[in-house]
Each structure stands twice: as C-alpha cells, then as structure tokens.
Write a structure and sequence with these properties.
With 151 residues, this protein is an alpha+beta fold. The protein is 18% helix and 41% strand. The protein has two domains: 100 residues, Nucleic acid-binding proteins (OB fold (Dihydrolipoamide Acetyltransferase, E2P)), CATH 2.40.50; 31 residues. It is globular.
Length: 151
Amino acid sequence: MSSYNKVILIGRVTAQPEMRYTQTGKPVTTFTLAVDRAQKKTDGKDKETDFISIVTWQKLAEICSNYLDKGRLICIEGRLQVRSYTGQDGQKRKVYEVVASDMRMLGRPGKGEGPGEYDGGFAAAAEAEDASKEFDRLGAGDIGIEDDMPF
C-alpha cells in the first residue's frame, strides 16, 4: 500500500503572514492558523483551539503575504511535514508544519465591520447567487452552451 499525506484545515490567520526569500530567491511565507475543535470539558469550555504553523512557497507565498490579514477565515490544503534540527543549545528538536499547496479565502470583510472581522462567507454566497441569476437571465443559447453537456 502506498502512502497518503493530505491535510485540509479551516481556521483564522493569527497574525500578518511573514514573507522572506531563500538564498536562491524563492519566496516563502509562514503564518499560524487558529483551528477550533469541539471539546467538552469539565470546566464548561466547549471548544479548544489548535495553533498550526503553515508554510507556503512560490506564487502561493506571494498571494498569502499580499492578501491575508489577522482574523481572515481561510481553508488550507496541503501536507504535514516534520523537520528535525539541532538547536543552539545542542538539543534535537522537531517542527510539525503544514506545507500548503492551495489556499481559499472564505468570506470577505463585511460592511461596517472592523479589520479582521469577516461575515463567514454570507456576502460571497450572495454574490454567487447574483451571478447565477445573471447567468439564468442570459440563457444558455446566448453564450454558446449546448443542451447536451458531457457531464
């Protein structure tokens, strides 16, 4: 059996992503994603939050650096990576991080909300519905779509 390593996370960016360049000039952006998970505890809390390190490379690194802000709700798809290194104190350490291959912004800034506050995608859903109505108004014949679609 072959291996499979895929991670999909939905959460909020905890701080402005940091972009830097490798010695060969490749852009790399890192940031932390806060991901809630349901957890019934005796102290009354019903959720806990995991803070997960995300690494993006190349064009995705530039996009994340330019468009993501603290509090932004996003979906990250990628793979889990474990790196080992020796610290300055001589101790061996491991770093667990998600190397992202795709990122989707969920929602957009709502009207009258402060920075970092988002509407959870309701505005985007309304825009998609408006686009769908416009598509229906045009009709399939107006844009060259045949009735017998192969899918």
